[in-house]
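User: Modeling request: complex.
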Amino acid sequence: MERVPVQTNVLKANQETAAENRARFQTEGLLVINLMSSPGAGKTTLLETTIKGLKGGCRLGVIEGDLQTDLDTRRIRALGIRSHQITTGTVCHLDARMVARALTEFSVHELDLLVIENVGNLICPASFDLGEGLRVVLCSVAEGAEKPKKYPVMFHKADVVLVNKIDLAKASGVDLAELISNVRQVNPTASIFPLSSRTGEGFSTWLDWLEHSVATHSAATLVRS
Amino acid sequence: MHELSIAASILDIAEARAREHNAGSIQVIRVRLGEFTNIAREALEFAFEIARQGTLAQNARLEIEIVAMLVECIVCQGVNHPERTLCLICAHCGFPLRVVSGEELQVDYIELETEAERLAWKEYRYKQMC
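Assistant: Request completed. Predicted assembly structure:
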């Protein structure tokens, strides 16, 4: 038998496509967010409230990932925002190639911000780089305080953690401070924003941060060019 | 069940390498799998059984080496194995801990049947038949 060294990352093919996506986003000065959460944490509602809050201040596009239906895309389009639906069939995550294909549906150079709403799942999407600039993980108070401990890889890789549905903390019997402390334990450096998409509580801090990130990203691109 | 796409990627990488060596078959695929990934060993082994059908690795053994998770304090630089309840804040100084290992997902090596072995096997079978 002959032993042949390989030493190749199993996700190499995905990472190569993600690097191509990332290079393209950088050239176009586009900030791309990979938005991940468990099903029902409120990704689409968060997007709706964010879109309304931005008041057309930045040119936004949305890619929606779901196993089935284009319901989410329709909700986003109803707000006058360009949106494309990827239906994965049975696949539990988006990968870089799916995003590359979806990009043909957008005039990327006309956008400042692209949000990719990943398939609702706290496990698989953590392994697949899409070429994003920011990894945003959303968790809701109603899921309990233990989610970051149970899914540490996902929370560890986040740049931003949004803690949604804080208006339901009391009704869910969840201690918000404990939930935030659990996020901190697996990710000491992430920016954390507690908020409620329904009541708007905490939303202005998140919107300010997001607008600032889009602006600095565009400025950095201008400087580079 | 993303282990199925992981298994398919492992096979793609192994087969490409085996073809570079004009190998008739792959006998062993060795994979390094970090503790701090979302890949479950048993699910990967199960997915591999399905995905290997009809490939050069049809009869291959999948060997999985689990790589322990190690963390290091960016300030006091002590390396250690994290507690059962994962906390990436240094117990001594309160600064963030960096993951040193445990995020690996790599095809380490493959073992191939050489041309000489294949011919020897053929000859052996032929002699048995005569």
